[in-house]
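During the first year of the project, the team set up a workflow for recording each protein of interest as an amino acid sequence followed immediately by a discrete structure-token representation. This format lets reviewers and collaborators read both layers of information side by side without switching files. As required by the reporting guidelines, we include two representative entries from the current panel. The first entry is reproduced here exactly as it appears in our internal archive.
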Amino acid sequence: MKRSYWLIFIIFLSFNLIADISIEYDSALSAENIITTNINEVDYFNVYEFDKSFKAVISEDILDRRLYVNIYGKQMVFLVDSSYLLFGNDIYNFIEPVIQEEGKYFLPVSFLVNILPEIYDSITFKDGKLFAHTPVDNRIETIVIDPGHGGKDPGAISYTKSNFEKDIVLSVSKKLQKKLKDKMDVEVLLTRNSDKFVSLHDRTKFANQNNADLFVSIHCNAHYSSKAHGVEVYYLSSAKTDEARAVEALENQVVYDYEGGEEAVKKYDDLAFILADMAQSEHLEESYDLS
């Protein structure tokens, strides 16, 4: 009797053993395994396995119940509780729905082995394995927060002349730094930590030296009316409104007033701005999305 029970136990294990999916890369990068699990008799994997295996950028829209997964610079859009995927202008159906359990999102393994190699030329599935190009790491690791003005440059001044933009934005920037560090696994740096003047050149130099993935400059406005409120977000764009140009001119007056007049302005001539704009053109869409 003991022997027959032992045999039945072994058979039970073999039927419930789920094979992980191995990924091999066309470089010296070590192979990875996508861990699978069985849910309602269907093989699934946690969407964050994409982060481990493809350096994916993953986000969710709770209201629209959508998952955004970006690998190799291209975005997949999944609908939660649906088996449909939007990729570019095409829609794919991988039969089994995306499932949410205990705050985690799971995709069916059938998508991994059938649809993923179809939509990405850099991925193939053969002999039970995925073969892929070396993943592109687009994840955000370093954020530089830039508190505007500082030191001899007060920025906007309140009607009572008791509040200065430079002090408010430094306080806000420090609070934002703490919140980002608490909620995200990223390095968050400030271009200034105290009331000191930092030139525009030194602010951008600081961001570049620290290989910043994001650069966010914090400013605030003043108004005669206490009822004025709201938020404005500006990002690098080739198309500018008159209002945006006015704000740009006002902020760039800092160069003339506090960095040495005409001589300082020459450092930021039209050619430099054009070259900077050309260098950043590939990031316009990303800047728009972030904004």
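The second entry, processed by the same pipeline in the following quarter, appears below.
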Amino acid sequence: METKIRAGILGGGQLSMMLVQQAQSLGLYPKHLTLSLTDPASLVSPNAVLGDPKNEIQLKSFLENLNLLTFESEFFDAAYLKNHLANFKGKVFPSLYCLQLLQDRKTQKEALVKNKLSTSPFIQTLEKNDVKALFKKMGPLVAKKRWNGYDGYGTFLLRNEKQLEDFFNTSELNLEHFIFEKLIKFEYEAAVQVARSKAGHVVFFPFVKTIQKDNKCFLVEGPEKETAEMKRLKKQIQTFLNKIDYVGVIGFEFFKTKAGLMINEVAPRVHNTGHHSLDSCTVDQFTMHWLCALQDKLPAVELKSKAFVMLNLIGTSTKEVPIPDRKQGNLFWYGKSNREGRKLGHINFTGENKKALVHKAFQELKIWKL
């Protein structure tokens, strides 16, 4: 007799919201544990549970009767969860091993290097002199917090000695919490989402070009024409995911350099650069994430149009945002209060020509009062 799936999500943001919505299309009605009942996921789900994953009692209560658990982000402490999910009999995906490996930028980078996946040179050290030596050897650096960094938060550019000294003088600086990478000169940034099922079946979403604004993803356009290098990279990524037995959707972000594609970061979850798939692909990344845990064989990802563009709507004030009378694109609104730098929603555009779609996106952005 088939076991009824009782799914749960840790987190209540927009990624959780879209995971909830796409789960419903599969006949699943997951619970999600959230710190606020005004979070995006709570606006679309009757199964919101108010609580803190760091609270042992609240977490234990949330897990009761669940047999499938996933995360909307990598920011949940895997070591803590290992202790408190020891008696959980259900399936956790991605595994806590994968979560712990990839949520720490140090162990993430070590795993990339070990598996011969191209990434920028780096060190992790407790000594300021080591950082200064690396600066003299390599030139400008990037300091990244090992945990909980995103959208530029926890990232410091160290282009000259003054910026280096200012960083060292930062209050409560703990070098153990950082890695230091060589600052990479690149032509543009790119990304791809990859899905791997519980049985090891791997499928790729299309490669995309990404444009950043104030360290946040602003525009995604695709598909990128698949090159011989991308095909080789796909094989390397598949081997890597098989080796760590990853289950679910995972996002890879790249720098396009003169030497080729170099991995900047890996996010063990559905990813902002894959939101286009809700309109551009026959299977979106959120549905695919659930299917990774439910099916051995995953459906093929095929494009529904020749080109697509995804525009992020990013707040610039604290004023309420009126939703304009829109005529182009498909709006996904997260229901968040406005603030500077906050992702409030996104719009997907599909069509025949990327250049024309980018023009549409910028024209539509003009009518938004963010």
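For the second entry, the following points were noted during internal review. The CA atoms of residues 64 and 103 lie 26 Å apart. The mean pLDDT is 94. Both points are flagged for discussion at the upcoming steering committee meeting.
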